[in-house]
Design goal:
Structural class: mainly alpha
Helix content: over 70%
Distance between the termini: 49 Å
Number of helices: 20
Strand content: under 5%
Largest sheet: 2 strands, antiparallel
CATH class: Mainly Alpha
CATH topology: Hydantoin permease
CATH superfamily: Hydantoin permease
Radius of gyration: 21 Å
CATH architecture: Orthogonal Bundle
Shape: globular
Oligomer: single chain
Number of strands: 2
Length: 449
Amino acid sequence: MSADNYIITPATIREPPTRFFEKLKFLGPGFILSASIVGSGELIATTILGARAGFVAFWVIIVSCLIKVAVQLEFGKKAILTGNTVMTSFNQLPGAKIGKTGWAVWAVLFILAFKAIQLGGMVGGSAVVLSMLFPFLPLYAWVFFCVVLAAALIASGIYKIVEKISLFMIAVFTITTITALVALRFTEFNITWNDLQEGFRFKMPVEYLAVAFGAFGITGVGADEIIAYNYWCLEKGYAAYTGPREDTPQWKKRAQGWINVMYLDATAAMIIYTLVTAAFYLLGAAILHGRTNIPNGDGVIETLALIYTQSLGPGVKVVYLIGAFFVLFSSVFAALAAFTRLYADIAGQMGWINFFNSTERNRLIRWLACLLPIIWAILYFFIRLPVIMIISGGIVGSVLLFLVVYAAIVFRNDRKKILPSGTVYTIVFTLSVLTIFAVGVYGLAQLFK
């Protein structure tokens, strides 16, 4: 990395911007988050839920996008106020340890191992789109291409590359998806106010619960994305600019200033991924609901192409496929960027490397950037069911949310001693925690009864 913002000294201190347009220059972590969020979950899981349930489950998607942000903010605040990586903070949670490593770190390592199945579905989905665009090469060649491309883009470990590529991908898939939704108004699939009202009656037929539970875990900011937000806040420089912690009014004012910048970053991300996620769901509900031939295998991409061809005409199928590739590959790209840092951080907590030594950290990131996509590709070829693979990852993410919410509660209790929360924020955070637990417990109870 050109600037190692994991190392925080008095020399890294920078006063936070106070004007809105000055703050915009320091946005970035949310772009990476949006690239990760608006991916396979939205194109496949969200659209499939809309196709199967119709408009009735629209509220699940909106709640999923809005309700988790307060938990995400606690992870960002923890990074800014302490300069700790997320696994350093998890290692300090109360409870037993195995060697040097706390139970929470082991739990993350164990749970995220199952996320590899979801990521295999993402790699496979990206390759399927490319094989449809360029059928002169076999599918396995495009899987290999996706693996190599992801590894090449992430191996450098440079934050600015991740941020800029994420922003480009966001622009492509946002424009194509919103355009398709607007175009529905001029077709037989026009969405009415009655349709939208049906989507906010807060009902959920039992037969759609498993898909809805998976969609809740994979849409909006998921557990793994909340965890990853810590690294992006650190690498953007929010903690470094705040400086080493001091019990002084000047430090607290500076910390609050950078937290305010982080608020704007998180809000901008929430607006982007909520709009695009809602658009995908409405397109699926309007165009695909009632169809009984939606496949779980590679043919799902061809079926989902109807979203664009039915709303914009058959001539835009190529445009759809280009947009679909950026949607799917953005998840692969952003997830690989996050997972390489996460596993390197875990290795640091286990004493295998010094994570805060940039040479050791970047060396392991490069190795992981090459290894992880290969594992994901192997899983794809072994299973070859992108829909099931991706939705299963959402269910795993819903389980991980329990640990993430617990950590956020601990982080908030620790933070109140330094920077207390206002009444409105406290209400929003409490509502977020209660909703996540209620949906999670209800979903698990229904799945295993």
